[in-house]
């Protein structure tokens, strides 16, 4: 029996989109594994260059947190790198739609995403589960391994340049260095007095007291995205 037009359309869409999204996922996963290797090498190089110049209690350490996560601790800062397992499209107002690369073929706009978060290392050390971290960068990668970056002080490959280069180790180094540099200069500020003027006995006496006092680099302050 001849396939009905709407069913053929459904089948064609499933085949086309499934193959496309699988390719995007594979490229993103490959790039994330490359990011892990590059981050490990960068952390080792920085650690060697700092040998003998730091208090031994100050740590610079890479750790693999599993298939889709990695971290690097730099002194009091912890950078978490997380690959999202889904593939994304962009809203119509996103500047990606203004690029010739995407206008020529809209399927180039489907991207995987790697997030970069900045936390205080003590938040994890002391299990302060209510502490806040900040998304400071995102790397987007498409079916052709082309990429662009959004984030704090990330200027190496903005969306306007999408489609010009493929992601590789040399591309990752300035992205990682920018993320580390921003985190080190993004200091912990004293929270507003009004936010902490009252506490309860329970906050001091429960065994989870550490997690009841929220700490973050800009608690009580607005975290702007002016350079994203």
Describe this structure in words.
By secondary structure, this protein is of the alpha+beta class. The chain contains six helices and six strands, in the order αβββαβαββααα. Strands 1-2-3-4-5-6 form a six-stranded antiparallel beta sheet. Helix 1 packs across helix 4. The protein is globular.
In short:
About 35% of the residues lie in helices and about 20% in strands. By secondary structure, the chain is of the alpha+beta class. The chain has a 6-stranded antiparallel beta sheet with strand order 1-2-3-4-5-6.
Topology:
Layout: H1 5-49, E1 60-64, E2 69-74, E3 77-83, H2 100-104, E4 112-120, H3 121-125, E5 134-141, E6 147-151, H4 169-185, H5 201-205, H6 209-212
Antiparallel strand pairs: 1-2, 2-3, 3-4, 4-5, 5-6
Helix pairs in contact: 1-4
Key features?
globular, alpha+beta, six-stranded antiparallel sheet, 18% strand, single chain, 228 residues, 6 helices
Broad shape: globular
Number of strands: 6
Strand order of the largest sheet: 1-2-3-4-5-6
Strand composition percent: 15-25%
How many helices does DSSP assign?
6
Share of helix, binned: 25-40%
Low-pLDDT sequence parts: 219-223
Biggest beta-sheet profile: 6 strands, antiparallel
Task: Please give the alpha-carbon distance between the first and last residues.
Answer: 54 Å
Order of helices and strands: HEEEHEHEEHHH
Radius of gyration: 21 Å
What would you call the structural class?
A: alpha+beta
Indicate the mean pLDDT: 85
